[in-house]
Amino acid sequence: PVSAAHIMPIGSFIGATVPLGSETTVLPGGESVDDSRFVVRYFRKSKDGRLLFGGREVYAVNDPKDIHIHIRRQIAELYPELKDVEITHGWGGYVGITVPRKPFVREVMPNVISVGGYSGHGVMLSNFFGKLYAETVLGNRDRLKLIEDLKIPPFPGGRRFRAPLLFLALSWFALRDRI
Q1: Strand positions, DSSP E, the chain
Q2: C-alpha to C-alpha distance for 89 and 19, rounded to whole angstroms
Q3: What residues contact 139, with CB distance under 8 A and at least 6 apart?
Q4: How confident is the model at residue 78 (pLDDT cuts 50, 70, 90)?
Q5: CA distances (Å), 70 to each of 77, 146, 157, in order?
Q6: Is-above-0.70 flag for pTM?
Q7: Helix (H, G, I), strand (E, B) or coil at 34
Q8: What is the DSSP letter of 4?
């Protein structure tokens, strides 16, 4: 209940291509990439040479039926030579976001910390917050206090209108990415 007004779910989806082969010029050095768009695209090659490409955000409760098509379209924007590449796998799930896209952290009762809203950065940040929780339980509350003081506003619109307002706002930012 403490975090419900501050964290909203959005869908995040990724696809994997067939192995591209050694002749491809896509990420020849094994780089991992994410861009600076509001709807972030992130990608890297797997050990077997597949391009793993994510960036399909969904702001509704229904999973998209077009993960493969959408991922292929995004790949083709960056790598036109891959416009017809076969997408063999597509999957996704939901991540929690906050208005400023920073985690929401509160101690809701002694030694019980609510953390969420990693905004797509949970793999890295959850390790940090696990350490923070351990420090807090062991009596060192210094870093927890600093993070709790960060202002994470609730989503506007209250319980009834926050989901439609989130959809409109995020759709606007996604459109702005394309212009």
Answers
A1: 8-19, 32-34, 42-45, 50-58, 87-97, 104-109, 112-116
A2: 12
A3: none
A4: very high
A5: 11, 40, 30
A6: yes
A7: strand
A8: T
